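Entry for the shared binder. Reason: the reviewer on the internal report wants the predicted structure included alongside the sequence.
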Amino acid sequence: MSLHLLDLLIILAYLGLTLVAGFYLSRLASRDLQSYFLGGNSMKWYTLGLSNASGMWDISGSMWTVMILFVYGLKSAWIPWLWPVWNQVFVFVFLAVWMRRSNAMTGAQWISFRFGEGRGATLSYIIIVVFALVSVMGFMAYFFEGIGKFCTSILPYDLSFRIGNWVIPNERAYALLICGITTVYTVKGGMYSVVATEVLQFVLMTLSALLVAYIGYTQVTAEQIAAVVPAGWDNLWSGWQLDLDWTATPYPLVNDKIASDGFGWFGALLMMMVFKGIFASIAGPVPSYDMQRILSTRTPSDAAKMSMSTILVMYIPRYLMVAGFAVLGLVYLQPEMAAMGANIDFEKVLPLAINKFVPIGFKGLLIAGLLAAFMGTFSAIINAAPAYIVNDIYKKYIRPDAPAEVLIRYSLYASLILVILGIGFGFNAESLNRLTLWITSALYGGYAAGNMLKWVWWRFNGYGYFGGMVAGLVISTIILFFKPQVLDLFALAPNLPDIFLFPLVLGVSLIGCVIGTYIAPLENEEQVIRFYRDTQPWGWWGPIRKKLLQQEPDWKSTTSFKRDAFNVVIGMIWQMAQVVIPMYFMIKNNTQLAIWTIIFFVSSYLLKKFWWDRLND
């Protein structure tokens, strides 16, 4: 890709500005751990919401989202339900309030608030710390690999260098440069630096998204799109089967992509995504930057508003950019895609479109925005992870009376060590591919059951939490390494997506939870009563509620399961509207655009009336 001097100056100016911000804000972060990791719980909820949105707007995810829209059309709006993306709705409707009421600093500290002290509680504490640290290093390796590939595809300069006999290739050199800059401003300024730079990054990304949307909307017509896509591509809804046949289009190899994904039986896939999504969403956010933003807010109601604003400010601009790149690629990138032959890579639509369509000056702005997307996510992880070492290990078990300046200094050291380890994994990404799969599949496979039960079952204890996490880890590891044998055992198709094995993982994890819970009596009943009183979750809490009312006869819960369930359904519709509105806008389907715009405003009104107006602390 060619890069004009003006574009290069814009990119360098952005990188310099992030460093200046980090050093300027370091004086605020150095007061104590609360200031360093949570910004002293003094930042506005909407500022944290912008920061959280920036952290979720990563390069790899954007390239993947462009690819699935290219391949699956409007039905791609459902595919992120694999995670599911609407876990954010559960968070803002009720989980953010429940979590913030703990006044904890990390996910591990929150576990202590839930289970108290004792052997079982200690086991649960240890496993969540290990989970957080190992998953963070895996994600650092993932982002290190991704930013290197992105930079070499859009920047024309060769930064490769040699250290003795060790040659650092261009891709790794770019990754080291960007990760190094991000690490410096993050460890220097802590949470203040992360949030300030992420707000700047979000502004850049939004401007970039609007630019791409303008180019796509003005250069592509509805007729041009219809000429290169199969029937049903522009239809959001699907029957039991996907029924997208690309054979008669300029992109017949898309059929091979759909077959390799295993998404042909789309109706069954959607049902399984809903089944998994309910359990995974009630489990709550993993102990990473999303949880840290929740714990950083001033009050529980601010935590809910922050989580809601993340969806509100991110989805429409992001999907305007995604849809813009997708339609430009469909209509104008046929020669470039054909040149790849059988090795066609649909994830390259985004960088190819940047090179071909974005003019001088704006190209620098767009690249800076996409770099900002990476840096926002990477910096959020860097800031969240060291708290588990310093607060949850060093301060808790080694030196409880350590002064603030020592804890801040050790936090800086911990950040650097974790970054070095993560980059080390990234340098060996090929040889560690199986390990990375183990981290993302096995560790997360065991997360849902125990983290769901911790909210809703009074009898659930630390042993049960530990047992569920370990059981899920074991079964997920077996599936990872012996998936063909597992599929054959249950007479399932060999290319079945992993999500169809989620019921097996969940079932084994639940068995581990139940066995662990009943091998020992309930520890720390008074702590469980305190947790229930302060958090006010719904679920099976009858015996604990009875004892609480004996102690505090006037206590009343402000939680309502029926209202929360209603708001979750409305919130999912509200979120989906923000996904499809930009898509219908870009393909110029004005009828569906009008319908979903009305749905967005009606669902916004319902959330205002039945959720926002009833928030309390």
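Summary line for the report: Strands lie at 161-163, 166-168.
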